[in-house]
Design brief:
This protein is mainly alpha-helical and 304 residues long. The protein is 56% helix and 0% strand. The chain contains 16 helices and no strands. The protein is globular.
């Protein structure tokens, strides 16, 4: 349901503002986004009060279709000193989650402008790009696909959380991640932009270069992000030796042929290679049990 139709109905029927609360709450739940919720709640004091009193049931109806990767977004809210998972939320909490989602959407637009449109065209295991991006598509599209957006958003929230908390809290978070998540996170740590618009990053080394040139977009990382990237790499290596008794494999060389700059593990066409690298699938030695693989190495449900 769109807000326009609700507002038009309100103009014809002033009783909208005094209808039974359960009916008004149901109308809120049918809206397509929180922008519509905020606008409808501003129509009159009665509707604002209903929104404030029914925040949680309305949130649970709208959030899955309005806030991408809602579970990751909700976990990040906890790190912003928001309510614990499962605890009631306030209207201010919802506003903050929407703002966070907007920050990440802006990060995606910058990433698409600077990186995605430059991803190189290659064949993958004998398959053309159309095997991943649609019929007659012979290169990566200029924007992220749905599954790539999921990887980007979930990894961005995880990185943003780690950048907000104290370094002393990193260990438990990083050790709880699968190697798959760590590969995505390590690449996300190389983003050529401020994380959460809060991080202070060094200026470009060549500020007079043309906009969007390689030198001008590579603004560098803060000292904390450099330390975090190093720690993520150490955990990847630890997991590889713990479960496969061999060094972790590096994807950076593949970026020269199948990505851009150092970005490659996020792309759909590279996922078979990522799984092979992370799980050492080509190695014929003994492998961890499926339960261990899912908990520590590779989770097939990550991109859903």
């Amino acid at each position: 349901m769109s807000l326009t139709s609700v507002q038009a109905d309100d103009n014809r029927h002033p009783s909208l503002s005094i209808m039974p609360p359960e009916v008004a709450s149901n109308i809120f739940c049918q809206l397509s986004s929180f922008s519509d919720v905020f606008a409808l709640s501003a129509v009159c004091c009665r509707l604002r009060d209903i929104w404030l009193e029914s925040v949680n049931p309305i949130y649970h109806q709208i959030a899955p279709r309005s806030i991408p990767c809602e579970r990751a977004a909700r976990r990040f809210l906890v790190d912003q000193d928001g309510p614990d998972l499962g605890s009631p939320m306030s209207a201010k909490d919802v506003v903050r989650m929407v703002r966070n989602a907007n920050v990440i959407e802006k990060a995606i637009l910058q990433f698409e402008r600077e990186i995605v449109r430059r991803v190189r065209s290659v064949t993958v295991d004998g398959l053309e790009y159309e095997g991943f991006y649609g019929p007659n598509v012979l290169k990566h599209p200029p924007t992220l696909t749905r599954t790539e957006r999921t990887r980007f958003i979930c990894s961005y929230y995880a990185l943003w959380s780690l950048m907000r908390i104290d370094r002393s809290e990193w260990e438990s978070r990083i050790q709880a991640m699968t190697s798959q998540e760590l590969y995505y996170l390590r690449e996300m740590a190389k983003l050529t932009q401020s994380i959460g618009q809060e991080e202070i990053v060094p200026p470009p080394m060549f500020p007079l270069e043309p906009p969007d040139s390689i030198h001008s977009i590579n603004s560098g990382q803060s000292e904390k992000r450099i330390g975090l990237e190093r720690r993520i790499g150490e955990q990847i290596q630890h997991n590889s030796w713990r479960f496969f008794e061999r060094d972790a494999q590096d994807c950076s060389n593949n970026a020269k042929h199948e990505g851009f700059l150092w970005f490659v593990v996020l792309w759909d066409h590279f996922q078979p290679a990522v799984e092979d690298l992370v799980t050492h699938r080509s190695v014929r030695l003994g492998k961890p049990s499926p339960a261990i693989m899912a908990q520590y190495i590779w989770n097939n449900g990550f991109n859903e």
